[in-house]
User: Which sequence fits this backbone?
């Protein structure tokens, strides 16, 4: 059976997720992209995975820095999610205006997020037109608040 790509997206869209921005930095270059293909993998050692498109510009910086930070967005950060879902350097000009500081790996931790996980890249597995990036969590943090959600191709919030 051939699976129609649009139908695949629509069916997967029923799986409600949070929204993250995965960031990285190396030698003055920044990377950041909106991602919801994120999950925890292992408790001991603490591992998470993020799926990244083979063509994503962020991949080079993640590979050269061998690290990334997963920033879990709060309900009021939809604008940020939209900006980092775009291609091109304009979003990094925006990053300069968004409050952030460097995690121990150097990856930016964005201000106002619900939580963050600073990760060292341990493995990258081929997965069709994406790569599965496995990261060992080296530092993390969380703050109170509600998450930004994504369901059926729309941003939403708890109780909406
Ligand atoms: C809600 C949402 C979730 C997304 N999740 C992912 C994801 O998990 N992995 C991915 O590679 N792209 C994902 N994207 C698309 C990227 O954010 C988009 O391709 C971005 O332009 C990539 O930026 P870059 O080329 O600078 O790395 C998602 C987009 C949206 C709106």
Assistant:
């Amino acid at each position: 059976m051939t699976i129609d790509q649009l139908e695949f997206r629509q069916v997967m869209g029923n799986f409600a997720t949070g929204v993250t921005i995965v960031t990285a930095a190396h030698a003055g270059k920044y990377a950041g992209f909106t991602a919801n293909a994120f999950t925890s993998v292992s408790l001991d050692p603490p591992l998470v995975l993020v799926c990244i498109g083979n063509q994503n510009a962020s991949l080079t910086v993640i590979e050269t820095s061998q690290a990334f930070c997963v920033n879990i967005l709060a309900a009021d950060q939809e604008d940020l999610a939209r900006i980092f879902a775009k291609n091109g350097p304009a979003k990094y000009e925006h990053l300069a205006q968004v409050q952030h500081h460097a995690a121990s790996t150097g990856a930016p931790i964005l201000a106002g997020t619900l939580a963050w996980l600073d990760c060292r890249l341990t493995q990258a597995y081929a997965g069709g037109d994406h790569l599965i990036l496995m990261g060992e969590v080296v530092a993390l943090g969380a703050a109170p608040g509600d998450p930004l959600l994504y369901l059926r191709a729309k941003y939403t919030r708890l109780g909406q």
The CA atoms of residues 19 and 36 lie 5 Å apart. The helical segments are 5-12, 58-65, 78-84, 90-97. The two ends are 36 Å apart (CA to CA). Residues 19, 33-37, 51-53, 56-58, 85-87, 150 surround flavin mononucleotide (CB under 6 Å).
